[in-house]
Structures are given as structure tokens and as C-alpha cells.
């Protein structure tokens, strides 16, 4: 259990990590392991010992594991080589890409070169100075093929963006017809047998969550009622599997007349419509707890794409031809995009995460996302709304290029 919990929490992944992340996941992993041990020994009556043994075990294990894992982390930083990345893209794509690689948590993958024109010729120039070729959709098929051949010949790594074409090729169905080997493309749907076990997983986890969350739901309901006028539970029409409408349940975090004048709009980073208690409920995701009942009713899953409102779904469907594919599964309380992306990401970025989740779905992945969700409850960035000031810009790109000595080839 210890190994499974820590593996699902990502304890043994060191890239894109900070010391604080390692310490936090260690503490969280031990809390979950000790809690599970208490339940197992209580239910099974397998053995008994003084409760202080669990306290001592938690304290000692946290201290020893934190020291050990931080030591391993510094050994990893010291003795593994940095990965030098060259980004091949047009100038409009560069700001967001370079800014993501320049994250403070990114400890091994550093952009050292950017190429915005004459891709093949410039790739030959930098082949001995980089370790990874990051290829975007702006490259022509011929340029892409030549650069991939060049990278493979020189044993360089290749990174590709999550375009629809690339996502489509994930988990192919390999088939053979005499001398012909073919790859059958799988659609963005979960198989019937996986759908059955996913629904079973949802019901079991939802019932357990209901038992654990009941005290928090009671306290939250009281706080919402006494701090602002209006209903405790906020109902809103959302879209789930097969574009079906349903009423999502949430603890109200905004004023009762939040959209009476503005109409439907996405939450902003510093939204004046959010109540004083509401902003804390959003940070801790406590406003989402009533959605456990949506899961039990079959409107939602524990894990899946976050449900959007019909107004925005119609808008996104008109702008993005593949947006409808995310509705091939039930909407979820948490999801791949919420764990591995940012709350403030635009719907294009979230769609890539959602399609990646559907393509790579497994019960194991659901369990991993569920545990990873606990971590982001304490991540301020993941609970913020959209903020226009944070959009990548060419000014920021030029500053990043100068500060990090990135070579720009055109």
C-alpha cells in the first residue's frame, strides 16, 4: 500500500519538481498510508497496538523519508545532465512554449535555442549543441520528416505537441494482414467493459467520499448561509456525456445575483462577484463537494472533463471542430486538465488534456488523478481564474531569451 500510494502521488518522479513538492508529497503519502492502515486494522481486527504507535510511525517515517528523498533529489540534480531543448516553431507560438519551459519547477529541461525559420538548415547547425528537438505544428510535413530523421540519426530525443493528429495516433490497434502490418486508429471513446468498471469505481469512491466529506459539507453549508444572502446550494445547467444537459450542484461562492447584469461569463482571477467565504471555498475546492450526489445520480464521474455551460459549449463547438469529443465520457469532479494543467488555461489547452485522458484511460489512471487532486488543493495557481495580465507576450519572450542566453535562429 505504501508503494502504490507513493507511486500514484508521483513521489518517484523528480523532473519538474522542487524540494517543497517532495516534502509535501511525502507528508501526504504518509497521511494516506496511516489512514488506510487504521481502516484496515479496524475493519479486519487483524491486530491491535497502542494508537501512539501510529503517531510515532508517522513522525519517524516522515522525517526519515523527507531526508532520504531530498538527498536523492539533490543527487539527481547534481549527477544527471541537463537536457538542452531547441524549439522549432513560428514566432506566434514561441512565447507560451518558452514561458512554460522557463517555469521555476523545471529543473532539467532548458530551452537553449529557438528556430523560427529555415528549420532544416538551422537544425543541422545546432545538432551538436542540443539534446531534444521540440517540434510544433507550424512545421511543414517535409521539414518535420527531415528533422526527425536527423534527430534519430544523431540519437536525439524528440518532443511533439499534443495536436489532434498526434493524439489520434495514441494506443493504436495493431493488426496484420499477411505481409502487411497496419495500425487501426481508436476513437475517443472508452470501451464498454472499461465504462462498466469506471461506473463501479465512481459509485464506490463517491460513497466513501460522502462519508468522509459529510462534516465538511455541514460546516460549509453553515458558513455560506450566515455570510451572504441567498441559497446554500447553487444549481447550474452543465453539459455531460453525449451533450446531455444536467443541473450541477455546488455550494454558492458568488453573490446571488452574480450574472443578472453581465450574463454568462467565466470566473476571473480577482472576481468581485465572489463572496468573502467563496474565495476560500474555491481555493480548497469545498464548493465542489455537492457534486458527489451528481456522481451517484449518474450525471458525472469522479474523474473526467470538467463540465461547461451550454452557452460556452455552443461557442467552443463553433470554434473548435473536435470539442464535441470530450463529451464522449461523463463530466468529472476532477480531471486530467485540472491536475496537470492550470485552472487559467484556455479551453484549447484543456481540450488536449481531456482527449489525452480519454485515449489513455484506465482505472489506474483514475486512481492516480484522484490522489494527485489532493495535492493541487493547496496549489494557489490551480485555483485561480483567468487573468489577462498573465498571457504570454512577445515582450516577456524577449526578456526570457535575454536572461537565459537563448540563441534565436531565423
Automatic annotation (TrEMBL):
Q: Which residues form the Bacterial sugar transferase domain?
A: 198-378
Q: What is its main location?
A: membrane
| Molecular function GO labels | phosphotransferase activity, for other substituted phosphate groups
Enumerate the UniProt keywords alphabetically: Membrane, Transferase, Transmembrane, Transmembrane helix
Q: Which Pfam families match?
A: Bac_transf
Q: How does it sit in the membrane?
A: Multi-pass membrane protein
Q: Look up the record and report any one GO term of the cellular component aspect.
A: membrane
Cell location? Membrane
Q: Membrane spanning segments where?
A: 22-47, 53-77, 200-224
**Its family?**
Belongs to the bacterial sugar transferase family.
| Name under which the protein is recorded | Lipopolysaccharide synthesis sugar transferase
What is the source species?
Lacticaseibacillus manihotivorans DSM 13343 = JCM 12514
Amino acid at each position: 500500500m505504501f508503494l502504490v500510494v507513493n507511486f500514484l502521488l508521483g513521489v518517484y518522479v523528480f523532473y519538474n519538481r522542487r524540494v517543497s513538492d517532495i516534502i509535501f508529497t511525502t507528508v501526504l503519502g504518509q497521511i494516506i498510508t496511516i489512514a488506510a492502515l487504521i481502516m484496515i486494522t479496524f475493519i479486519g481486527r487483524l491486530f491491535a497496538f497502542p494508537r501512539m504507535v501510529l503517531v510515532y510511525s508517522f513522525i519517524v517515517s516522515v522525517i526519515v523519508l523527507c531526508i532520504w528523498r531530498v538527498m536523492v533529489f539533490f543527487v539527481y540534480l547534481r549527477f544527471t545532465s541537463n537536457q538542452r531543448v531547441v524549439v522549432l516553431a513560428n514566432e506566434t507560438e514561441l512565447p507560451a512554449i518558452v514561458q512554460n519551459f522557463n517555469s521555476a519547477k523545471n529543473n532539467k529541461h532548458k530551452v537553449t535555442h529557438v528556430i523560427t525559420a529555415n528549420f532544416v538548415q538551422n537544425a543541422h547547425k545546432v545538432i551538436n549543441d542540443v539534446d531534444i528537438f521540440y517540434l510544433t505544428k507550424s512545421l511543414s510535413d517535409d521539414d518535420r520528416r527531415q528533422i526527425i530523421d536527423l534527430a534519430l540519426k544523431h540519437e536525439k530525443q524528440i518532443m511533439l505537441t499534443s495536436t489532434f493528429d498526434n493524439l489520434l495516433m495514441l494506443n493504436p490497434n495493431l493488426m496484420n494482414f499477411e505481409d502487411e502490418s497496419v495500425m487501426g486508429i481508436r476513437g475517443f471513446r472508452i470501451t464498454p467493459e472499461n465504462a462498466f468498471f469506471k461506473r463501479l469505481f465512481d459509485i464506490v469512491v463517491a460513497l466513501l467520499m460522502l462519508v468522509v466529506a459529510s462534516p465538511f459539507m455541514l460546516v460549509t453549508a453553515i458558513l455560506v448561509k450566515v455570510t451572504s444572502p441567498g441559497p446554500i446550494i447553487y444549481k447550474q445547467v452543465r453539459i455531460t456525456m453525449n451533450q446531455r444537459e444536467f443541473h450541477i450542484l455546488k455550494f454558492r461562492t458568488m453573490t446571488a445575483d452574480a450574472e443578472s447584469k453581465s450574463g454568462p461569463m467565466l470566473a476571473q482571477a480577482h472576481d468581485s462577484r465572489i463572496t468573502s467565504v467563496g474565495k476560500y471555498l474555491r481555493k480548497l475546492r469545498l464548493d465542489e463537494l455537492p457534486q458527489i450526489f451528481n456522481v451517484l445520480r449518474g450525471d458525472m464521474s469522479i474523474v473526467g472533463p470538467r463540465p461547461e455551460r451550454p452557452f460556452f459549449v455552443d461557442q467552443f463547438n463553433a470554434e473548435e471542430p473536435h470539442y464535441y469529443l470530450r463529451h464522449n465520457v461523463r463530466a468529472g469532479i476532477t480531471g486530467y486538465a485540472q491536475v496537470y494543467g492550470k485552472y487559467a488555461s484556455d479551453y484549447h489547452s484543456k481540450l488536449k488534456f481531456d482527449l489525452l485522458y480519454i485515449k489513455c484511460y484506465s482505472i489506474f489512471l483514475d486512481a492516480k488523478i484522484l490522489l494527485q487532486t489532493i495535492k493541487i488543493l493547496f496549489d494557489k495557481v490551480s485555483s485561480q481564474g483567468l487573468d489577462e495580465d498573465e498571457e504570454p507576450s512577445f515582450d516577456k519572450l524577449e526578456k526570457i531569451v535575454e536572461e537565459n542566453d537563448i540563441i534565436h535562429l531565423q
